[in-house]
TrEMBL record:
Pfam families: AMP-binding. The chain crosses the membrane at residues 27-49. Residues 127-548 form the AMP-dependent synthetase/ligase domain. This is AMP-dependent synthetase/ligase domain-containing protein. Gene3D superfamilies: N-terminal domain of ligase-like (3.40.50.12780). One of its GO terms (molecular function) is long-chain fatty acid-CoA ligase activity. InterPro entries: AMP-binding_CS (IPR020845), AMP-dep_synth/lig_dom (IPR000873), ANL_N_sf (IPR042099). The lineage of its organism: Eukaryota, Viridiplantae, Streptophyta, Embryophyta, Tracheophyta. Keywords: Membrane, Transmembrane, Transmembrane helix.
Amino acid sequence: MEAYKDRILTWLERLAQGDYLMGGNNYGILGAITLGIVIPFLLSTVFLVKKKGKQRGVQVEVGGEPGFAMRNRRFDKLVEVPWEGATTMAALFEQSCKKNARDRFLGTRKLIGKELITANDGRKFEKLHLGDYEWITYGEAFDRACNFASGLVKLGHSPESPAAIFSETRAEWLLAFQGCFRQNITIVTIYASLGEDALIHSLNQTQVSTLICDSKQLKKLAAISSSLETIKRIIYFEEEDGATIDSGLFGDTSNWTVSSFSEIQKLGKESPVNPRLPSKTDVAVIMYTSGSTGLPKGVMMTHGNIVATAAAVTTVVPGIGKSDVYLAYLPLAHVFELAAETVMLSVGCPIGYGSTLTLTDTSNKIKKGTLGDASVLKPTLMAAVPAILDRVRDGVQKKVGEKGGLAKKLFNLAFKRRLAAIEGSWLGGWGLERIIWDAIVFKKIRSILGGHVHFMLCGGAPLSADTQRFINVCLGAPIGQGYGLTETCAGAAFSESDDMTVGRVGPPLPCCYIKLVSWEEGGYTISDKPMPRGEIVVGGPSITLGYFKNDDKTKEVYKVDEKGLRWFYTGDIGQFHPDGCLEIIDRKKDIVKLQHGEYVSLGKVEAALISSNYVENIMVHADPFHSYCVALVVPPQKVIENWAQSAGIEYKDFPDLCLKEETVREVQQSLSKVS
């Protein structure tokens, strides 16, 4: 075998020098292709190299309920701060702003123009023409936050009363957020998409006296103003197009004081107030979750909780620093984006703001022929939820399929070769071959997100193995897949950049321990073979205080052990791999016993059915008094319409098409096939 390998290597060496292809030692483009593609292709049939795994987590003895506990292998002691003295969000912000005073911090695109486009069905769509990013420095951001804090006090806001932020993600959101901390004001965060009942509940329960919002939310607030019991002041972020606010929006009887964000900053600049800084145990945020059932719950996060998660993530994202650029577009009212931007603040990284509707050149609100946020900013770091990555994958695959022919074959070959390199099944990846494939196949795909992304943070929901591999190959970027909850301040587990496995969420972050506790009823125990299994319980400084004004629920899922360490019982079921990485395999609430006594895991059923081409989103519901499940399916409009056209089915509009017996039968057959 060794002699056989030597003969092949000798032949390949001569082939690379052009002896067979070009009759001499001229390399040229054919020689480069030979060296870059043919040689590695042949070598991969002889030398199969599997990357050796490494230990990423180690077992540890902890207090509390017995279970199988792990910690991050690199840290014996739990991480609580990014550096000494940065124990609160206020301290972290001030110290980072002073350290990076002259560096870019917050960027917003200039609005050049907007127009309304009328579609064929008569609906109107707003299209934006956006220019370059305009930046403020860390030093300028600190000054503006301090001015806003002083302005709040001068306006009459008492630091003992919480303030709420009800807005889409933007630079002013973060400035208002940090400004409130200068006066130790607790912030209530609310999704901009939250419904009226949930919004009223959140504001009344926390007795918010000052509400900070973007101007688009003012009409929504006007409609529910009579139901809001404690609001006294409204502060709105101005729109760049200079649109004025209707002074009579809230009626003549309203007792609310309505001011713009810039007016409050000006007031504070003219009348500065000494800061009233928090401690690490003070409540920084009451974050209202969307709530899977019923009204949303407010999770109380201390300053120490948020700082601990940010400090931990900075230790696992490779080489992160001020030379990076981060594209922010996810909701800051969600713990995932809030944690990500706190990480960027910690390392002095610039943050450029965008939105899901303006992210790429083909996004819904981008005027045709102009550039999306990613093309202009060219970020090196991004956070994403699986749904967005799924859309990127589906969009690319659709375009490749439409081109067909040689282009499709070339893409499939390049994808297969790069995938083999990533999974370590052949010799090292061969740098020249990678360069060639990148130049002729993947460069255009990477340009969708600016072409410079070298690391992606993914969280919020499970990421499919197919999508993870697609992003690894086509964007050339590792994905740090995270697992965490609002209750753990996003901090729990995080996959490392050199871990190319799929379906796992990595080892525990260094700010926490993760323990598996047996769930006998569900059949998951820590003595299971080949891997211990059980309910995931997270403990450490990132664990939040509990639910606002909901002691019963807090006592149900939060526990403090004999050493004073706080634990949160997630309700998720996981298993630990031998290398210390966690895999989420089930959820206690997802398991429903049907009428005949069999258990059904709703999450597993959804995961199977969503692989159908006719499913864009799906929810499976089960009732113990029935013998079957029900699936509510959202179909992808273009796919269904293309099928209808090929099948010769006539219809008025998409809702009409969805109601036709032929469509229902086609989708049902697809669901039966994938299940």
